[in-house]
Design goal:
Jelly Rolls; ubl conjugation pathway; Znf_RING/FYVE/PHD; Herpes Virus-1; SUMO ligase activity; alpha+beta; zinc ion binding; SIZ1/2_SP-RING
Length: about 325
């Protein structure tokens, strides 16, 4: 493992220069040397095991480190490290316990505090990191809250970017201070896996959480109507109007109402009313007419569509 720091005194966070390059035996090391953005101390040491040639006894491995665009001095060190699996680390944490009695004692102490008014609190049985049900509930011994997080999820997160910060209160939670909470573990062992929350009384007693149903104003109910074309209303053409003129088509004032059951006829034949449920044909207005068409009365427009409708008396069609 390759470590880098900006000082060689005391405990230092791992920090590589922004403009730096690391090579092992002439090969570039492709690793993240910056860590998380705006998170000092989140940089991981660089594992160069795969680039070393250890099976050749007389071979000398070389490590080159270059950096630029800075006046600061950085210190590089190489250590032989042993990698420990997450499951083994979880077992180590499980050996350190926060007793159930100490948790209840802390809850009752807060309940008797005159400056703090406490009621029942809701405890989530889900890990705030993985949003899965807690398997190994842990927290730092310096944390004052009851909410726990899962040991495996927390350690896997530190592998990606070591910060060692409690995800609940954002206080420091290094590995040495992590311990399993026996009070929360007892709750997990005595509740079904489908339970996600429980209520904790100030005395330390707990019960299943029952969310209160919000009294919402009922939404107004609306009646839905499906309109058919037969429900539409159209105006009847004035029967007393003279339709023999060559002026543009116009519709006279309405004298009654009819349901649109008539259709179009391109051959000049009149159409009759059809039973309900049929669709009204589209009305077409000929916009190709002009003043020149009025002057050439001998040659009517080549394409005209007649809108026909049956009337008791008067003309049966108009142009």
């Amino acid at each position: 493992m390759v470590f880098c720091a900006a000082s060689n005194f005391g405990t230092q966070d791992i920090a590589f220069p922004h403009q730096s390059e690391l090579k092992v035996n002439g090969d570039d090391v492709k690793a993240n040397l910056r860590g998380l953005k705006n998170k000092p101390g989140s940089t991981r040491p660089v594992d160069i095991t795969d680039l070393l040639r250890l099976k050749i006894p007389t071979y000398h491995n070389t490590v080159e480190f270059t950096y630029a665009l800075t006046q600061k001095r950085f210190y590089l060190s190489i250590h032989v490290c042993k990698s420990i699996h997450v499951d083994n680390l979880v077992q180590t944490i499980s050996s350190r316990k926060i007793s159930k009695g100490s948790v209840i004692k802390e809850l009752t102490k807060k309940a008797h505090d005159a400056e703090i008014e406490l009621s029942s609190q809701v405890l989530s049985l889900k890990c705030p990191l993985s949003y899965m049900r807690l398997n190994t509930p842990i927290r730092a011994t310096t944390c004052t809250h009851v909410q726990c997080f899962d040991a495996t999820s927390y350690l896997q997160l530190q592998q990606q970017g070591p910060q060692w910060v409690c995800p609940v209160c954002s206080k420091s939670a290094p590995f040495e201070r992590l311990a399993i909470d026996e009070y929360v573990r007892d709750i997990l062992n005595n509740t079904p896996t489908s339970v996600e929350q429980i209520d904790i009384e100030p005395s330390g007693r707990w019960k299943m959480h029952k969310p209160t149903e919000a009294l919402a104003n009922p939404e107004p109910q609306y009646d839905a109507f499906e309109l058919d074309d037969d429900d539409l209303v159209v105006s009847e053409i004035n029967q007393s109007r003279d339709y023999s003129t060559n002026s543009p088509n116009t519709v006279g004032p309405a004298t009654g109402v009819l349901t649109p059951a008539s259709g179009f006829s391109k051959e000049g034949s009149s159409s009759i009313s059809r039973p309900g449920g049929t669709k009204r044909a589209h009305e077409v207005i000929d916009l190709t007419l002009s003043d020149e068409d009025d002057e050439e009365s001998s040659q009517p427009p080549s394409k005209r569509i007649q809108l026909l409708r049956s009337f008791p008396s008067g003309p049966s069609a108009f142009l």
